[in-house]
Design brief:
With 288 residues, the protein is an alpha+beta fold. The chain is built from 10 helices and 7 strands. Strand 2 and strand 3 form a beta hairpin.
Length: 288
């Protein structure tokens, strides 16, 4: 099963068509290539006044299952927005989802393409893998201000370049953990800061502040930088680490032991019995 998107060319001016969807499709198909966290496009064509393309079909929202063998009667695509409708996710799940999406975004940024419309509604799940979808606003990286995009996920300076994508990813991460209440955005509330031992939440908070800075020069320049900063927030499990080191040291000490030590120990243990045997033999000889 595939998803099909159609665009009525008759309702759009030629300039808009060439500058947006068709240009985005060409750049995406020519330069990006398959990635587990980017939606895959299979075919692009024109039929009459319709520009169309086929792509991966999202999992079903109601069953939360991949659509492999048949569409449910009331199919609805599973998006991150639908997942968020049930409430905030755990910190561990939220960060894992965003890290995967950032790796997909990194593929776009590697060829100087900005997505420009990252938001929960444009993130789908295919075979339970989160993917950036809806590439209609994708364009070459530019520092020019723009009002193209979704206001809640656009940076305050409206600079829709690669840093606008990292801003949107920061916003998505914040909402996954906190919900849509943006009262403290981008600062995390105390209840989130104290909710996990897997991540250093003070540093996660710092990553969010940088990703969602008002000025482009203060934001992460690309997805790779944000991935590195977020990965560095992972707590090292020291207790397990030192337990593992102790096991390694004991194993090494065991290997260093001389192979003759067990023989010597056995001989020492057998010595009293040997002496008793000798004494018994001497006593028997005297009796004879």
């Amino acid at each position: 099963h595939r998803a099909l998107k159609t665009i009525d060319l008759a309702r759009l001016g030629p300039a808009k068509v060439h500058c947006r969807e068709s240009t985005a499709l060409e750049a995406y198909c020519r330069h990006v290539g398959p990635h587990p966290n980017l939606v895959q496009i299979f075919h692009v064509g024109v039929q009459g006044n319709l520009l169309y393309y086929t792509m991966q079909l999202a999992d079903d929202d109601r069953t939360r299952q991949p659509v492999r063998y048949g569409l449910p009667e009331h199919y609805r695509p599973l998006t991150l927005e639908r997942v968020m409708a049930t409430g905030p996710l755990s910190v561990e799940t939220a960060v894992e989802v965003v890290l995967r999406l950032l790796r997909g975004l990194s593929r776009l940024h590697a060829v100087s393409l900005a997505h420009r419309d990252i938001k929960p509604a444009n993130i789908i799940f295919v075979d339970r893998q989160p993917k950036l979808a809806d590439i209609g606003m994708l364009t070459a990286n530019t520092a020019s201000p723009s009002h193209v995009g979704t206001p809640d996920y656009m940076p305050p300076d409206h600079r829709m370049d690669l840093t606008a994508d990292t801003y949107a990813m920061g916003r998505v991460l914040y909402e996954l953990m906190v919900g849509r209440d943006g009262t403290c955005f981008p600062k995390l509330p105390l209840r989130i800061l104290d909710s996990t031992t897997t991540w250093d939440m003070d540093n996660v908070n710092a990553v969010l502040s940088k990703a969602c800075a008002a000025e482009a020069s203060e934001r992460f320049a690309n997805a790779d930088q944000m991935v590195e900063a977020l990965e560095a927030c992972r707590q090292l499990p020291f207790d397990a680490l030192f337990a593992d080191l102790g096991d390694i040291e004991r194993a090494a000490a065991e290997k260093r032991r001389s192979p003759y030590i067990p023989i010597a120990v056995a001989a020492i243990h057998a010595l009293p019995w040997v002496l008793l045997l000798i004494l018994a033999l001497v006593a028997i000889e005297k009796l004879l």
